[in-house]
């Protein structure tokens, strides 16, 4: 799976939107972009994933650049519960299923009230 | 929904002792995984299973054994615990249709080896 680059940390205020960037300049055509987050003392939690088009679900939105070399996870209204480490992970659809998720250091999001 | 449940949540062992960590999922998933997470590091895959009765090695399998006798359960065993195995262990599961499918994680087992 190709590598991703994320800022080490970001800060936000409660009820404000948060844009978490991810660069993946070596992405291949069969790579899906996945986002997970890990709250303190919990296991990682799936957030969203996409291939080319922007995606929305109840947790967040994923905006994918036209050249797919970068993406942005959007939390529309941050809450204190959104304070976590956010991981951007590429998953090659052509790989055999059962391969590990490759977690980098991610972005630590702090949310202030 | 319970999702993925790990037992126990905490455990302290002495060097050389053995134990088994249990992972249970109620989502009828084919694939199950065991990861370990050490301070300041990402998760590393220990073993995984693509279905009942099958297991395979991941990135860091040494010192661990696994079994998948029932589809819903995936057991991780430490035959002779070592201090280097002090870690947080996470179990995950996913459907087996595509490598693209999300993995669902448990809340972890915090294991200390003295």
In words, what does this structure look like?
Chain A starts with 8 loop residues before the first strand and ends with a strand. Chain A is 0% helix and 46% strand. Chain A has strands at 9-13, 18-23, 31-38, 45-50, 55-56, 61-64, 70-75, 84-92, 107-112. In chain A, strands 1-9-8-3-4 form a five-stranded mixed β-sheet, with no helix packed on it. Chain A has a four-stranded antiparallel β-sheet with strand order 2-7-6-5, with no helix packed on it. Chain A is built from no helices and nine strands. The radius of gyration of chain A is 14 Å and the shape is globular. Chain B has strands at residues 4-7, 10-13, 19-25, 31-37, 43-51, 54-57, 64-67, 73-78, 87-94, 104-105, 109-113. Helix content of chain B is 0%, strand content 53%. Chain B is an all-beta fold and 114 residues long. Chain B contains no helices and eleven strands. Chain B starts with a strand and ends with a strand. The A-B interface holds A 32, 34, 41-46, 49, 87, 91-93, 95-105 and B 4, 31, 33, 35, 42-45, 48, 50, 56, 58-59, 90, 92, 96-108.
Radius of gyration of chain A: 14 Å
Outline the biggest β-sheet of chain A: 5 strands, mixed
Residue fraction in strands of chain A: over 45%
Give the largest interface.
Answer: A-B, 24 and 28 residues
Gross morphology of chain B: globular
What string, H for helix and E for strand, traces the elements of chain B in order?
A: EEEEEEEEEEE
What structural class is derived from the secondary structure elements of chain A? mainly beta
Radius of gyration of chain B: 13 Å
H/I helix tally of chain B? 0
Task: Report a brief summary of the structure.
With 113 residues, chain A is mainly beta. Chain A has strands spanning 9-13, 18-23, 31-38, 45-50, 55-56, 61-64, 70-75, 84-92, 107-112. In chain A, strand 6 and strand 7 (70-75) form a beta hairpin.
């Amino acid at each position: 799976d190709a590598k991703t680059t994320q800022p080490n940390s970001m800060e936000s205020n409660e009820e404000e939107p948060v844009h978490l960037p991810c660069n993946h300049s070596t992405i291949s055509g069969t790579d899906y972009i996945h986002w997970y987050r890990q709250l303190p003392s919990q296991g990682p939690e799936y957030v969203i994933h996409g291939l080319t088009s922007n995606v929305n679900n109840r947790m967040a939105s994923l905006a994918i650049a036209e050249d797919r070399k970068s993406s942005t996870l959007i939390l529309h209204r941050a809450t204190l519960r959104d304070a976590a480490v956010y991981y951007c992970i590429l998953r090659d659809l052509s790989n055999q299923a059962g391969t590990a998720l490759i977690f980098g250091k991610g972005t630590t999001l702090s949310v202030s009230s | 929904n319970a999702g993925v449940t790990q037992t126990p949540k905490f455990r302290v062992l002495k060097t050389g002792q053995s134990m088994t960590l249990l992972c249970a999922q109620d989502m009828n998933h084919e694939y199950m995984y065991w990861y370990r997470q050490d301070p300041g590091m990402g998760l590393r895959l220990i073993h995984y299973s693509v279905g009942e009765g099958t297991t395979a090695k991941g990135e860091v399998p040494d010192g661990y054994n696994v079994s998948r006798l029932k589809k819903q359960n995936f057991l991780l065993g430490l035959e002779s615990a070592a201090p280097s195995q002090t870690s947080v262990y996470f179990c995950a599961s996913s459907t087996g249709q595509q490598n693209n499918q999300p993995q669902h994680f448990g809340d972890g087992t915090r294991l200390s080896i003295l």
